[in-house]
Write a structure and sequence with these properties.
By secondary structure, the protein is an alpha/beta fold. The chain is about 35% helix and about 25% strand.
Length: about 475
């Protein structure tokens, strides 16, 4: 199944879309990989969904990546005597450790780590930022606050503390149980929510031990402050704009999105742009013009993937949402300005043979007007390097490992194919030409560029570039 676009579509599965028939329709509409949100999924439901995705993958003969998104710590207030209160600007309310039901003057906060982290003048944002408090007096068991922006506050609403560094792990006991279960299954990526510090990535890597790719969700100001270190440690990251927009000034998020996409190119790490991309399509068959523009910006900037959340998980039009995102992305990439814009954001190659070969391959493919670039990749690093260059020519990533081609389904521009390892250089050329031909990227008489590591089957050793002709029988010669 050959795509006509380079950016990938990550679709979240849920009650509106987690059947075999719907997953098939979503792939046919344009979905390249799927997200399972553990905030709403049991272990049994996770197992069933993974099985359905793999059945669709086998039926359509296209590798499909699976991302398991851990819930992360959820900080919430307790309950009120009458289920809700009305807070007015200037009111005083205390969040404390007493488990009794709350009223207009106090409410239970079952998170002792906040009493340690919050300082006077720190902000507390409740109900997705709709209500803003400022801490005045903090003790070991209470936080007295003044209401900066009031409103109706009901039971169990979430609390964000953007000014405070919490002394808590990004993984809860539930997350550890979910992670330990998920990595025994046939998944490719795991996303860690509410990352605050590089240590959070180190902690999850001790559990995954390379069995799945680790994706850091950037949704806390504390993570932004040490962004470079976090990106170096993770395998990919997600710009979770919803929570970022709650904890940071909204007007700063677009610029931060641009900065993070550029950092992804610099470090050669895949980046996903997420949250509310086509939000109105939860209940409408067409998006707003502003949403189309939002998706277009992410594609123009060169993001590896764009994500649908509720639109495909619980909305009324999941297939239409994926199809719309596919059409918008395809139109952007056909724009005359597209390549020049993403080229302007390119990073200098590292001083390694592998990076130099990847940069030379892009230039060679475009100078000679080659039909495609074919990369042999065992671990996936060669494919990542090829995609980092953002060539105008198609990239075919070949690997003998199902895990590698599935994981690379997240990466910009890669058409992933699982194939047997080449026996020697001649076999490598023949396989590359035959697959470029059979997958619809090259015709007899066309030339392709082939990159690989020699000796063959040596992970991370890209050191060869070869030009080959596609013969009449679909084989190759160099």
């Amino acid at each position: 199944m050959k795509r006509s676009r380079r950016v990938k579509i990550l679709a979240t599965l849920g009650p509106a879309s987690d059947t075999l028939d719907m997953i098939t329709k979503l792939v046919e509409a344009g979905a390249d990989l799927f997200r399972i949100n553990m905030s709403h999924a049991s272990h049994d439901l996770l197992d069933q969904t993974i099985e359905r995705i793999r059945l669709v993958e086998n039926a359509l003969e296209r590798p499909l990546g699976i991302l398991v998104d851990l819930q992360g710590p959820k900080i919430r207030i307790g309950k009120f005597v009458n289920d809700a209160i009305e807070l007015k600007t200037g009111d005083i309310i205390t969040l404390d450790s007493s488990e009794t039901e709350g009223n207009e003057s106090r409410v239970f906060l079952p998170h002792p780590e906040l009493f340690e982290a919050v300082k006077p003048d720190h902000r507390l944002l409740l109900d997705d930022g709709r209500i803003q408090l400022k801490a005045q007096k903090v003790t070991a068991t209470s936080i007295q606050c003044v209401v900066v922006h009031g409103g109706k506050l009901s039971n169990k609403k979430g609390v964000s503390v953007p000014d405070s560094l919490l002394n808590m792990s990004a993984m809860t006991d539930k997350d550890r149980a979910d992670l330990n279960h998920a990595i025994t299954k046939d998944i490719d990526w795991v996303a860690l929510s509410f990352v605050q510090r590089p240590q959070d990535i180190t902690d999850i890597r001790k559990i995954t031990r390379g069995r799945v790719g680790v994706m850091a969700k950037i949704e806390k100001p504390q993570a932004v402050e040490c962004l470079d270190e976090i990106i170096k440690l993770c395998d990919a990251f997600m710009i979770a704009r919803g929570d970022l927009g709650v904890e940071m000034p909204l007007e700063e998020v677009p610029g931060l999105q641009k900065r993070m996409i550029r950092l992804a190119r610099k470090f050669g790490k895949p980046v996903v742009v997420a949250t509310q991309m086509l939000e109105s399509m939860v209940s409408a068959p067409i998006p707003t013009r502003a949403e189309v523009s939002d998706v277009s910006v992410a594609v123009f900037e060169g993001a590896d993937a764009i994500m649908l959340s509720a639109e495909s998980a619980s909305g009324d039009f999941p297939v239409e949402a994926v199809s719309t995102m596919d059409r918008v992305a395809t139109a952007v990439e056909a724009d005359d300005n597209y390549l020049s814009i993403i080229r302007a954001q390119s990073a200098q190659p590292e001083a390694t043979a592998a990076d130099a070969i990847s940069a030379a391959t892009r230039q060679t493919a475009e100078t000679l007007d080659l039909a495609a670039i074919v990369t042999y990749t065992s671990s996936g690093s060669t494919g990542l390097r090829a995609a980092r260059e953002r060539p105008s020519k198609p990239i075919i990533a070949l690997s003998p490992k199902a895990k590698t081609v599935r994981r690379l389904s997240l990466v910009w521009g890669l058409h992933c194919v699982q194939t047997k390892d080449a026996e020697d250089l001649e076999d490598m050329v023949n396989k590359a030409c035959a697959i470029a031909y059979s997958e619809g990227f090259a015709r007899p008489g066309d030339r392709i560029a082939i990159t690989a590591g020699v000796p063959l089957r040596t992970s991370g050793s890209t050191n060869m570039l070869r030009i080959a002709f596609v013969n009449q029988d679909g084989g190759g010669s160099s």
